[in-house]
Amino acid sequence: MNERPPRFSGLDHDDRRFFRRVLIVFGLFAMAYFFWLLAGTLLLVFAAILIAVILRAFSFALERHAHVPRSISFYVALFIVGVVLAGFVYFFGAQLQTQLTDLLSQLPEQIDGFAARLGIEDPLGEIESQLDDGFGASLFGQAAGFGYTVVGGFTNLLLLIVAAIYLAYDPKLYRKLFASLFPPDQRHGVENVMLATGAALKKWFVGQMVSMLFVGLLSGLGYWAVGLPTPAALGLIAGFTNFIPYIGPVLGAVPALVFGFNISLEMTLYALLVAFAVQQLEGNVLVPLIQKRAVAMPPAVALFAIIIFGVLFGFIGILLAVPLAVTVMVLVRKVWIEGVIEHPPRHD
Model's pTM, two decimal places? Predict the structure, then answer.
């Protein structure tokens, strides 16, 4: 009786499942590495989407409240934004430029005075001595690199604006294009998730702009009332830095405190009182009103988002940390909680 050698039947079911899981893990790591390499580009894309959401929301508001025809509402929105920015520069640009110039020209003297009060002698002279010791060549190289960075930054800004305009002009086209990457039975759900994310980002941005305007105006008025120099510039800094929750208000108050410290201890206390009062009014009066209509984000989530995205992506990550966290929250709620936990997929 001739016995046939046993055939190689391949891997059994458990082995195949194990290797499939290994391939999935490797695929996830490869995808994560790919996204890490493209982190800067992806952040630029996200910023363009954020601006597009804002422009689209403005054009929709014109359609709904001002009864502007849909065919021209987007162009009207762009025109209004351009006119507002140009008008702001025309009416307030000269004054702000003067105050910012004065602030920058006084900054070395203020730093010297601040350091002297702390017992540090001639901090800027130490920098000059390093330049004399041959550090200048290195600094020149860094300055050249900074020049390239500035040029690249302006290029990225131009691309950002152009991309945002295209995205805002026809968002439905790009939603369907992205949804087409998924299986046909999932495309409708993908578009719904994108719409929910856009709505959340719009609400967050409106609330953030109101908060920044509130903080900037009150800070400028408060610094003017107590007699600090360049109050408009200090208020502008306070308003812009308020874009970053929790960390921004602290950074925005630093220039005012430095100026106040160099004038007198009493002026320092006045500057601190103004910054503290503005933040208390914002946190206890304005924020609760905003959260009724905007996205309510737990403070710990926003703080951890700033830390995580700041460590991963630097300053741009800090700027975009909260809108990125808003996006993640919507994705978790729509995809995981509603799509998996509350309505688990059926396996027939």
Answer: 0.73
- Euclidean distance between CA atoms 240 and 245, whole angstroms: 11
The string of DSSP letters for 162-225 reads HHHHHHHH-HHHHHHHHHTTS-GGGHHHHHHHHHHHHHHHHHHHHHHHHHHHHHHHHHHHHHHH
- Quick one: pLDDT at residue 88? 72
Rounded distance between C-alpha atoms, residue 120 and residue 13, angstroms: 72
Main-chain phi, psi angles of 304, to 5 degrees: -65, -35
Q: How far is CA 320 from CA 37, 49, 345, in A?
A: 18, 12, 33
Q: Provide the mean pLDDT of the chain.
A: 80
By the 10 Å C-beta count (0-12 exposed, 13-18 middle, 19+ buried), 61 is classed as middle
Q: CA–CA separation, 324 vs 307, rounded Å?
A: 12
CB-based burial, 174-200: b 16+ in 10 Å, e otherwise: bbeeebeeeeeeebeebbebbeebbeb
Q: Which two tokens stand for residue 113?
A: 């005075």
Do residues 248 and 308 lie in contact, with contact meaning Cβ atoms separated by under 8 Å?
no
Interatomic CA distance for residues 149 and 17, integer angstroms: 49
Q: Which two tokens stand for residue 308?
A: 């995580």
Confidence of residue 148 (pLDDT cuts 50, 70, 90): very low
Residue whose tokens read 């993908």: 190
- For 311-348, write each residue's pLDDT tens digit: 888 888 888 999 999 999 998 888 888 876 766 656 55
Paired tokens of 52: 């597009």
Q: What share of the chain is helix, strand, coil (3-state, %, to 5)?
A: 85, 0, 15
Taking only the tens place, the pLDDT of each residue in 158-200 is 888 899 999 999 899 999 999 998 889 889 989 999 999 999 9
